Amino acid sequence: MKHCPIAATLGTLGRKWALTVLRDIAFFPGASFTLILRNNPGLRQRTLSLRLRQLASEELIEKRPPTSESKRGSYRLTEKGLQVWPILATLVQYGVQNHPDVVFADRRPRNIEDVFPNSTGLMLGRFATPRTKNASRASPS
Q1: Do 101 and 127 share a structural domain?
Q2: How far apart are CA 51 and CA 49, in angstroms?
Q3: Which of 29, 135, 37 is nearest to 81 (CA)?
Q4: Residues 6+ apart with CB under 8 A from 50
Q5: Are residues 25 and 53 in the same domain?
Q6: Confidence class of residue 138 from pLDDT cuts 50, 70 and 90?
Q7: Mean predicted confidence (pLDDT) in 21-40
Q8: Mean pLDDT across the stretch 22-32?
Q9: Structure pTM?
Q10: Which domain holds residue 123?
Q11: In sequence order, what E strands does the chain have?
Q12: Do 55 and 121 have their domain in common?
């Protein structure tokens, strides 16, 4: 379908490793290149470098310079990148409910509130706030 917003989004987020790299940057503040590489078995350094450059060029992430605490730079989500939180939260919710055999040792499904009890606002972003009259009118009936 021409001009499809889902296809446009998948052009960036649908690239191999993009969502897991964003997950690490979102869920591990100050994520370094090494941490991201370690969290993703099978991800090669060259691929990670390429993905980080692409995500930065899309203005979803930015690299922070080394600090006195860390000799290596780290990555963080930009304002635009923060819009990915609800997408990641939805994937977490789907995974904990529909793939508990892979996610949890006890193989028991859970809700996102069980896994992240104090982070609903962060995980859902603007979707966690009450809708305004204009927003409710725009939603399908």
Answers
A1: yes
A2: 6
A3: 29
A4: none
A5: yes
A6: very low
A7: 94
A8: 92
A9: 0.78
A10: 85-134
A11: 61-64, 74-77
A12: no
